[in-house]
Amino acid sequence: MNTAQSDWKPISGGCQCGAVRYTVHAPVELTNHCHCTMCRRMQGAIFGTWSRMEARHLTIDKGEENLTLYKSSPPVRRRFCRTCGCPLFGEYKEEPGLIWITTATLDGGAHPGHPKERERHVCVESKVSWYEITDALPQS
Question: How far apart are CA 137 and CA 47, in angstroms?
Answer without folding.
Answer: 14
